[in-house]
Every structure is written in structure tokens, then in C-alpha cells.
Design goal:
It is a single chain. The chain is built from eleven helices and 15 strands. By secondary structure, the protein is of the alpha+beta class. Helix 5 packs across helix 8. The radius of gyration is 39 Å and the shape is rod-shaped.
């Protein structure tokens, strides 16, 4: 007796036949027993009795596009037991469609056993994680490199590979799609990586920072591209999978800081404009913070007293306390080394609750002058 016959006799195969019309034509006694049914009980029943929805879809696709040689090499299927349990199998067989009508699919099934249990556990864990990530408010992403990046080379070469090696989005959640203003009918995970994370000087610098940090950084700025082509400035927390010196994937979360950068830029422009305004004032002006430290001086102050004299002028003011909102004469050293008389005016400005700064204005005295109120 050859080996095949020995196996057939000793180990009853799980086999069965289904028709293109969706009926169970035959099942071996061992398969009926595995599923918890009596022999012949399932004959001519619809395949929905024992096959999962995904498996039915796979069978229908197979009938719709049968192999030319009629041989089915490998098919992953899930069968439903009488008690509701699942039986995962790998099947192979023959799809007769040339000589019979309707076509019939004969399958020999091999149970996955403990491997099937581990696969179910992995599937369940993946489903839970996917649901958590998709519902998260934070934007999460993962780029997988189909062509792994060799990181045991120069920095320039690593940067080139990161942007040129074949890669794709492994996972982008709904919050990520929101940041890039992705239309609801567009699947982010099917879009080219470079379309939204293009190669640019700013992003090359981002990758160099990743390299220097061993591909583990927080709050790294990159300049991405939204769906409409406008720039998106995002901070990235990035981690990576590296095996044997090859970068396989990068993942992390992003935070859109475009609005914050615009606000910061606008504030910097306003501050710069205010600086130019104060530099146009002919009187020397010095701003003193709540800790009695010089915070800012205008051009006239630097021309009169020098760049480094802010602290010494503050000390002289403190040695000669001046009433608020009045002009007083005070002798101060100027840049040339001489002491000259200045009319000095101090005002307190409330910066925030319980915190006040002082603005001191210095005007060279042209003669004796009594203290007077300053009016606009």
C-alpha cells in the first residue's frame, strides 16, 4: 500500500463539493463530523449553512473567474460548526467547468488546528487595535517600505532611499485624513506616500534629524501637503522598525501646527513692526520687566548710551526713584563717557494680572526744567 492510500485509510480527509449555484453537493463523513452534523444532513443545502461570509465571497469569485487548468492550488476558508464555532482550513482542489454544468468545485481541506487559534487571536487583536486607532482623536500613521532602507550607509544615501525606495501607507486613521482634508470618498491608505509627504529641503532635514536620533523623535517638524495641495506644517512623534540594519517601517502621530505657526508668524511681524516704530522715536526708550531687568531698548537708546548699558541705567534709575507719569532731570553717562542731564519719564504698564513693566523715556535736557505732568 502506497503512502497516499495509507493516509486516506488512516486519516479520513475533509472533503466536499459545492456547485456554482451555491449548493453543497457532497461532504465527506469526516467533514460532517467535524462540523457537528449527521451524515447526509447537509446535502443540497445552501453553502451559507457552513461557510462564512468571507469564504462565500471567495468561492463566488473563484466560480466567476475559474482557473484555466481547473486546479485550485490554495484557498483559505472558514467553516461554521453546528454549535457556532469556527473551523479554519486551507483547501486545494479541482474546479470542473469545462465538462460539467453547472461547474463544481471539489475541495480537500486541511484544518489549521492550533495555528488557526493563533490566527483568530491575531485577527481579533488587530481588529481591536484598528478600531481604537480609527476612533482616536490623535492622527496616527504608518509608512511601510516595500524596498527596505539600508541605514548602514551615509546620511545622504539614507535620505535618498527614504524618499526614493518603494513605500506605501500601512495605516492612516480618520483623524489623519482630517488633518490632510481628505474627501470622504478617498481612501488615504491607497494614496501615494510622496503625494502627501513630498521630498523637500525641509523634509530632508526632518529625515536627517530622524537619522541622528536613531529614528525615535518627538515633536519633529515636517512640511506635508494637504489634499488640495496647500502646505501642512505638522509635528511628528516618530518610531521605527529596524531589522539587521534595514528600516522596514516608520510610524507615529502628528499634530497640525499650521495655525499656530501662522499666529506665531503674525505675532513676529507685529513685534517687528513695533520695533521699527519705536526705533523711529527720537527719544531713548528702555523697557524694564517685573524683575527689574532690561527687556528691550530702541535705536536711540543704543546710540545714546550704548548697547550694553541697559542694566547700569536701570540701577541708576532705582537709585533715584522717580514718581510715575512725570518728567524729572537725572544725570546719566552717555556713550562718549561724559555725564549729561536727561529729562526722564517713567510709566508702569500692566502686562498681565499682578505683573507690571516700566517704560523709561530719556530726553537730553536743554536746561533746567521743573517736574510736570505728561499729557498726550
Amino acid at each position: 500500500m502506497d503512502t497516499l492510500n495509507l493516509l486516506v485509510n488512516k486519516v479520513q480527509p475533509l472533503s466536499g463539493t459545492v456547485s456554482a449555484g451555491g449548493q453543497l453537493v457532497s461532504l465527506s463523513a469526516s467533514l460532517s463530523d467535524q462540523l457537528g452534523y449527521a451524515p447526509e444532513e447537509l446535502l443540497n443545502q445552501p453553502i451559507e449553512r457552513i461557510y462564512s461570509v468571507e469564504s462565500i465571497r471567495a468561492l463566488q469569485l473563484l466560480f466567476a473567474d475559474p482557473p484555466a487548468d481547473q486546479i485550485v492550488h490554495s484557498l483559505e476558508l472558514t467553516l461554521i460548526r453546528h454549535n457556532g464555532g469556527l473551523l479554519q482550513v486551507v483547501a486545494c482542489g479541482l474546479l470542473e467547468w469545462r465538462s460539467v454544468h453547472p461547474p463544481r468545485l471539489h475541495l480537500l481541506k486541511i484544518p489549521l488546528g492550533p495555528l488557526g487559534h493563533r490566527l483568530r487571536e491575531m485577527h481579533n487583536a488587530n481588529e481591536v487595535m484598528s478600531q481604537m486607532l480609527q476612533s482616536a482623536k490623535a492622527a496616527y500613521w504608518c509608512i511601510e517600505f516595500t524596498e527596505a532602507v539600508n541605514i548602514n550607509t551615509s546620511q545622504d544615501e539614507i535620505v535618498r532611499q527614504v524618499f526614493e525606495n518603494d513605500s506605501h501607507w500601512r495605516m492612516c486613521n480618520r483623524a489623519m485624513a482630517g488633518v490632510y482634508e481628505m474627501p470622504a470618498d478617498v481612501d488615504f491608505n491607497q494614496q501615494p506616500v510622496r503625494l502627501y509627504w513630498p521630498r523637500s529641503p525641509a523634509n530632508e532635514e526632518f529625515v536627517r534629524r530622524l537619522i541622528e536620533a536613531g529614528f525615535s523623535v518627538d515633536c519633529a517638524l515636517s512640511v506635508d501637503r494637504r489634499h488640495d495641495g496647500s502646505p501642512a506644517y505638522v509635528e511628528n512623534d516618530v518610531r521605527a522598525t529596524i531589522v539587521n540594519g534595514y528600516l522596514l517601517r516608520m510610524w507615529g502621530s502628528i499634530r497640525d501646527v499650521s495655525q499656530e505657526l501662522r499666529v506665531q508668524h503674525d505675532a513676529e511681524q507685529r513685534i517687528d513692526a513695533l520695533r521699527r516704530v519705536f526705533d523711529a522715536v527720537p527719544d531713548a526708550v528702555l523697557v524694564i520687566d517685573e524683575h527689574l531687568q532690561p527687556q528691550w531698548r530702541n535705536a536711540a537708546f543704543e546710540e545714546t548710551f550704548g548697547i550694553t548699558q541697559g542694566a547700569s541705567i536701570v540701577r541708576l534709575l532705582l537709585d533715584n526713584p522717580l514718581p510715575e507719569r512725570t518728567w524729572h532731570t537725572l544725570q546719566l553717562p552717555v556713550l562718549s563717557g561724559r555725564d549729561l542731564n536727561f529729562n526722564v519719564h517713567c510709566s508702569r504698564i500692566l502686562i498681565r494680572e499682578s505683573v507690571a513693566w516700566r517704560v523709561a523715556v530719556f530726553r537730553e535736557s536743554q536746561g533746567a526744567r521743573r517736574a510736570q505732568e505728561l499729557h498726550p
